[in-house]
């Protein structure tokens, strides 16, 4: 007999030839045929096809939690293997999803490869999602929690000011969001930067303040 760490070729006393797999791997799937030869002839057995039976497994780890901003695109890739090739299904809160639900779902049922896309994320897309792979030998599911952050909002609008030259003016807005959004001030669509003794910008958590000291005619215009 001859052998390797995975299999052993055995010849019995009564003339039978056997191949025994001690550790059967996917690479051993396929067609097998015994060929017997001597000095005068060659005999071949019928071809035997070995088809493995394997419950689905994920070949690439999927994230447990994903956080994106409103308006961003989200792509999740699912790769699985099994014998036969597993069916891939995407679910949200237990409901099977399709492209009719506003998603872009691509599934190759011959390879077990799937791509799940949220084209434009909104708060309503937040929730618990699942990627399920299954064949007749088993089912495997991975849960993914997706959070879409809401866009920043302001609690009050800026009001108009009518002041005289040399006076001071203070503009304050409160911006909410997760994470807290930065605030950039503009004067006539041109970004404003701090200037000693004239322009003061204060950021205190969600509160953002623009102070103009000793206002001049050049400071007139639209602020945002």
UniProtKB/TrEMBL annotation:
Any one Gene Ontology molecular-function term assigned to this protein's record: axon guidance receptor activity
Record's keyword annotation contains DNA-binding: no
PROSITE patterns, per the entry: IG_LIKE
GO biological process: homophilic cell adhesion via plasma membrane adhesion molecules; synapse organization
Location of the Ig-like domain: 56-147, 151-224
InterPro entries with a match to the protein in the record: Cell_Adh-Cytoskel_Orgn (IPR050958), Ig-like_dom (IPR007110), Ig-like_dom_sf (IPR036179), Ig-like_fold (IPR013783), Ig_I-set (IPR013098), Ig_sub (IPR003599), Ig_sub2 (IPR003598)
Keywords (A to Z) from UniProt: Disulfide bond, Immunoglobulin domain, Repeat, Signal
Keyword Signal attached: yes
Annotated Pfam families: I-set (PF07679)
Taxonomic superkingdom: Eukaryota
Gene Ontology CC, one term: axon
Name recorded for this polypeptide: Ig-like domain-containing protein
């Amino acid at each position: 007999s001859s052998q390797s760490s995975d299999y052993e070729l055995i010849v019995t006393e009564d003339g039978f030839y056997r191949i025994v797999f001690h550790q059967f791997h996917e690479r051993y799937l396929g067609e097998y045929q015994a060929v017997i030869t001597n000095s005068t002839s060659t005999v071949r057995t019928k071809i035997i096809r070995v088809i493995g039976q394997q419950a689905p497994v994920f070949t690439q780890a999927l994230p447990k939690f994903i956080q994106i901003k409103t308006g961003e695109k989200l792509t999740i890739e699912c790769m699985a293997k099994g014998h036969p090739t597993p069916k891939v299904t995407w679910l949200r809160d237990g409901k099977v999803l399709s492209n009719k639900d506003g998603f872009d779902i691509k599934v190759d049922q011959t390879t077990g490869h799937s791509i799940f896309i949220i084209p434009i994320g909104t708060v309503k897309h937040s929730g618990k999602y699942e990627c399920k792979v299954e064949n007749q030998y088993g089912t495997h599911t991975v849960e993914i929690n997706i959070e879409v952050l809401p866009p920043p909002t302001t609690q009050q609008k800026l009001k108009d000011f009518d002041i005289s030259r040399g006076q001071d003016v203070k503009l304050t807005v409160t911006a909410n969001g997760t994470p807290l959004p930065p605030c950039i001030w503009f004067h006539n669509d041109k970004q404003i930067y701090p200037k000693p003794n004239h322009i003061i910008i204060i950021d205190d958590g969600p509160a953002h303040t623009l102070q103009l000291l000793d206002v001049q005619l050049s400071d007139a215009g639209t602020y945002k």
